Structure formats: structure tokens, C-alpha cells
Amino acid sequence: MKMRRPLVAGNWKMNGLTASLAEFDRIVEGYDGALKAKTDLLVCPPATLLAAFAAGRGDVGIGGQDCHAKPFGAHTGDIAAEMLADAGASAVIVGHSERRQDHRESNGQVRAKAEAARRAGLVAILCVGETRAEREAGQALDVVRGQLEGSIPDGATAADLVVAYEPVWAIGTGLTPTIEDIAEMHSALRAALKARFGAEGDGFRLLYGGSVKPDNATEILAVADVDGALVGGASLKAESFLAIARAYL
Ligand SMILES: O=C(CO)COP(=O)(O)O
């Protein structure tokens, strides 16, 4: 039995049209009984579907995939955390490696986004993770600790922030770190959170993300200090997403 309530979150990335509502409905229908009693479930659809998903969400949480740091203004194409909350979101992913890479987001910008999430009453899911080159150079722990240190806001609490460790080279590749490497990283993140936030550091949920599938979920989610998963591809189908979430049962 884990001391923190597990969270299994699905990041749909740039996937999904209105026809995908039927798939989301199957996720909502499958979230019941023992699964609901034990595990939080969250789906982060593209912004175009957020309000429609929120309308039929049952007890499944809805999250955005990114937010702007400002509450409103002249920022074409961006979405404020307040707008996500208004559309029915309870969380938002910040600092995903695809944003850090495609949009050159810095730790400072990610931190401002996490602060915006708190301002809007959203839980921030703060992503960190090393590249393949960084791991091969033996720098994974230092890089990830540096990202955490630079992008987690002062005053963050376990109620308003979740950390997701997503090694960049494991995302969408079918590759995963060894169980020992996941355990080492999560325990380093836990130690960093305790060093910075004292006893509160024990309360933050730490998710693992990167090629989580039904057939590896049980082993990964059993690791100490892995409090859930951030799932990409396998979250697009109700069957595989629910199978991952049931790994905790
Ligand atoms: O980036 C991810 C979730 O945010 C992981 O994606 P995959 O599960 O498709 O590897």
C-alpha cells in the first residue's frame, strides 16, 4: 500500500478529434469500483476538446497540456491557466520535454507556468527528464535535479504540484530505463524535495512517464517513490489506459 494516493494521468498530446469523445466515455465508464477507490485518474486532451471532455468527465480529472504564465493578454495562440480552469480543468502539465524542445522553454519559464497554475487553482504536473546523451554521459541525476531545482516554485505543496520524471529517450520509443534506474531517479527526486521542502517533500506525488504500457506498468508502478504514471500513446485507448491504472489493484 502506497502512502500517497496514486495518480495515473494520460497525456493525449496533439491527438484527438470530436470523434474521440466516445473513447473518453469508455475511460469514464471504466473508472469505477476498486480502481476509483484506490487511484486518481486524469486525462489531458488537446485544448480543443477540453470543455467537451470536462462536460462528461464523471470522476475523471481533466488537465491542460500547457499554459501561459500570464492570466490574460496579447499572447496569440496561448492559453491562460485561468482559461483551463474555466473550461473544467483541475490540472495542467508544465515543462513537458516536447515543450522544452519544440518551444525552447527554460526552467524559469516552466517555473512561471507552475506558479500560474497555482494562481488559477490548478495542480501543476511538472515534467523533468534527461536526454539520451545526458544519460550516456552519466549526467542524468544532475540534469534532472537541476531541472527540478530551477522549475519548481517556492511554496509549492503536495496539494498543488506533482512531479513527473520522463526520460526524453523513453518517450514514444518503446524503451524504458531499468527498474533500478527508475528507482534511483525517483529516490533522488524525493531526497531533493525533502531537502527543499522539509517534511512536505514526502507528500509530493512522483510519476514516471515514457513508454508505459499495460505489460510494464505493474513492475514500474511497484517501485518505491513511483506514485503513478504519465502515459502518452497508451492513454489514447481506454482499454490500455485503464489496464495501466489497474496495475495498482
Ligand atoms: O511523454 C509522455 C507523456 O507525457 C510519454 O509518452 P509515451 O507514453 O507515448 O512514451
TrEMBL record:
Binding site for substrate: 11-13, 172, 211, 232-233
Record has Cytoplasm as a keyword: yes
Active site: 96 (electrophile), 166 (proton acceptor)
CDD domains: TIM
Keywords for this protein: Cytoplasm, Gluconeogenesis, Glycolysis, Isomerase
Domain of life: Bacteria
Keyword Isomerase in record: yes
GO BP annotation list: gluconeogenesis; glyceraldehyde-3-phosphate biosynthetic process; glycerol catabolic process; glycolytic process
Pathway(s): Carbohydrate biosynthesis; gluconeogenesis; Carbohydrate degradation; glycolysis; D-glyceraldehyde 3-phosphate from glycerone phosphate: step 1/1; Carbohydrate metabolism; erythritol degradation
GO CC, one annotated term: cytosol
Catalytic reaction equation(s): D-glyceraldehyde 3-phosphate = dihydroxyacetone phosphate; L-erythrulose 1-phosphate = D-erythrulose 4-phosphate
Major place of residence: cytoplasm
InterPro entries in the cross-refs: Aldolase_TIM, TIM_sf, TrioseP_Isoase_bac/euk, Triosephosphate_isomerase, Triosephosphate_isomerase_AS
Subcellular location field: Cytoplasm
GO MF terms, alphabetically ordered: triose-phosphate isomerase activity
Gene3D superfamilies listed in its UniProt record: Aldolase class I (3.20.20.70)
EC number(s) stated in the UniProt entry for this protein: 5.3.1.1
Alphabetized PANTHER family for the sequence: TRIOSEPHOSPHATE ISOMERASE (PTHR21139:SF42)
Function: Involved in the gluconeogenesis. Catalyzes stereospecifically the conversion of dihydroxyacetone phosphate (DHAP) to D-glyceraldehyde-3-phosphate (G3P).
The family this protein is said to belong to: Belongs to the triosephosphate isomerase family.
Subunit structure: Homodimer.
Protein name: Triosephosphate isomerase
